[in-house]
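Sample intake sheet
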Amino acid sequence: MGIKFKIMKIETKSSEQYHIESLSNKRYELLDKQHASWNEEKMDYDLEIPEIDELANEILKYIKLYRNNLTFEFIFDELTKLGQAPNLVYDDNGNFAITSAGIQEVTTELSDLAITSLVTKEQWKPTIREALDHYLDGDE
């Protein structure tokens, strides 16, 4: 009778990731407050919260600053929470690019659709991390 072992992956978060997550959570709390103040008659929010944009800028600043201590998945997830739409593209020649420029159908449900990504030759990089650095540095 053999002994079976189960290997569990323990995810560790850096202090930088915790910092960004706390800023992101605070931003979402403020977004919820603002969305709750939507006035149908005025077609506008009764509550304007400038701190939402300030937090977005701060989060992006820390993503750029801490990028080497953050996982690719975490960075992509946080960028999408900020309203960005980064796309990872591979060219079959060993090059990667990250772009948010492109065209796609708009749908509220998961469906088959076509996406066209616009990539300049400067965006092609030999590694995903280099493509991410190029994207974060605003050289898109």
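Comment: Residues 82 and 103 are 19 Å apart (CA to CA). Strands lie at 38-39, 44-45, 87-90, 96-99, 102-104, 115-117.
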